[in-house]
Write a sequence for this structure.
DNA sequence: TCTGGGGTCCTAGGACCC
DNA sequence: TCTGGGGTCCTAGGACCC
């Protein structure tokens, strides 16, 4: 018997989170900006219909926003991840088999349930009632088809946010009406290429006879997409959260940075943050990288520097890591450039306990591990950065990001809890 | 003036070995 | 000047996702 998957996706998730605490903003244009108040990364329907697409730099549409009284927020991920957890907890009530796919999406295995359409409507209602976050649901026999159904649910109003594609006929119609570029896994490059091959819709790809050709041209993944469109499960449900294989932390600066010492502080901070993530999943890392760069958009006087170190023995000690980070920074820093972004990269991650002994370097000793854990606990309790390494600096940060439209931390942080009157 | 951040997977090709 | 064949491992880069 074939599977039945539902994809539940929160509508304009970040915007919905902000609206939750500002209900007067419902039915008005609202947008959430990326880090540094750069681009829109979440837009309400009303804002989209003003002609502002996803990813638009804020400064380009500032006038439009003012004129139309758009409410703009800086991103507030502490809030979003908290609300995400609530949504996921609610969803978990409906099936024992579920995959949290991203901050605002989850796949639910509904195989064996009766009257799926009704059940999906019930799920939608319950989530909205319990969390206040509106969702759309798409159901079909593979993840790719569920995703496609979900897109329809979001796009077409008369579906009331739920689309079920289980019979051949409804699938035929849906796939025929879906441009190839809208298929999950078909990005810009494949979109262009497939159209050149005469594959314009999802249905064209599904029904294309020469599978070997698809595989040759679009790799194993391309073929999997085609088979998923036929309703065969190729992407399975991942119920367990796998530890990350690499960790990054990078930021654009709020203003330009020129001096090595400021870059060092940025790197120390990013490294600390990346290592906190590393320790949270009980990993050690065997490779550390750092990059710095000038503006991506400015012409002339461009520089991108990056380098990495392979560690003889893996570590989870932030202090060691910051030292290595500085070493790399010394190699790549060039004076005279206007730096706009820096980042760190952790690779060759291993689960603690799986490490292979090296003859050449000492492992983190018990004491340093304990110290790190203690810092993590305190920072978790008191807020990020309550305790940090001296290298991170305490002065006013030229490199810190802009967050001019930040909402209060409604759900985390004691000082900013909502007051009940 | 002002343009995000963080991941995964796949493949081709080089290095190296016998 | 001629110059095998096959395997593995690693890396960089490209593609995709949210």
């Amino acid at each position: 018997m074939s599977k039945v998957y539902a994809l539940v996706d929160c509508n304009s998730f970040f915007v919905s989170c902000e609206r939750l605490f500002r209900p007067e903003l419902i039915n008005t244009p609202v947008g959430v900006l990326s880090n540094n108040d750069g681009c829109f990364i979440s837009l309400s329907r009303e804002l989209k219909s003003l002609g502002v697409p996803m990813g638009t730099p804020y400064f380009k549409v500032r006038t439009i926003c003012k004129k139309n009284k758009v409410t703009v927020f800086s991103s507030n991920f502490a809030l979003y991840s908290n609300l995400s957890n609530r949504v996921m907890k609610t969803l978990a009530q409906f099936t024992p088999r579920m995959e949290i796919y991203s901050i605002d999406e989850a796949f639910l295995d509904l195989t064996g349930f009766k009257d799926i359409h009704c059940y999906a409507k019930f799920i939608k209602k319950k989530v909205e009632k319990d969390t206040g976050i509106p969702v759309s649901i798409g159901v079909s026999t593979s993840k790719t088809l569920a995703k496609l159904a979900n897109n329809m649910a979001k796009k077409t109003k008369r579906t009331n946010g739920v689309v079920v594609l289980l019979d051949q006929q409804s699938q035929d119609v849906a796939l025929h009406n879906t441009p190839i570029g809208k298929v999950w896994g078909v990005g810009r490059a494949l979109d262009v290429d497939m159209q050149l091959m005469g594959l314009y819709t999802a249905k064209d790809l599904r029904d294309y006879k020469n599978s070997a050709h698809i595989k040759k041209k679009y790799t194993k993944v391309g073929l999997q997409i085609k088979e998923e469109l036929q309703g065969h499960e190729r992407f399975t449900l991942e119920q367990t959260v796998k530890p990350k294989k690499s960790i990054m932390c990078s930021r654009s600066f709020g203003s330009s940075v020129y001096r090595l010492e400021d870059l060092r502080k940025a790197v120390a901070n990013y490294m600390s943050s990346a290592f906190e993530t590393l320790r949270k999943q009980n990993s050690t890392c065997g490779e550390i990288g750092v990059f710095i760069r000038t503006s991506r958009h400015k012409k002339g006087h461009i520089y991108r520097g990056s380098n990495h170190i392979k560690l003889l023995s893996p570590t989870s000690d932030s202090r060691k890591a910051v030292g290595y980070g500085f070493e790399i920074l010394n190699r790549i820093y060039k004076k005279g450039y206007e730096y706009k972004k820096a980042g760190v990269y952790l690779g060759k991650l291993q689960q603690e306990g799986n490490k292979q002994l090296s003859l050449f370097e000492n492992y983190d000793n018990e004491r340093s591990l304990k110290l790190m854990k203690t810092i993590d606990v305190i920072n978790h309790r008191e807020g990020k950065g309550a305790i940090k390494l001296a290298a991170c600096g305490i002065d006013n940060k030229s490199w810190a990001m802009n967050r001019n439209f930040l909402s209060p931390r409604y759900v985390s942080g004691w000082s900013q809890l909502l007051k009940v009157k």
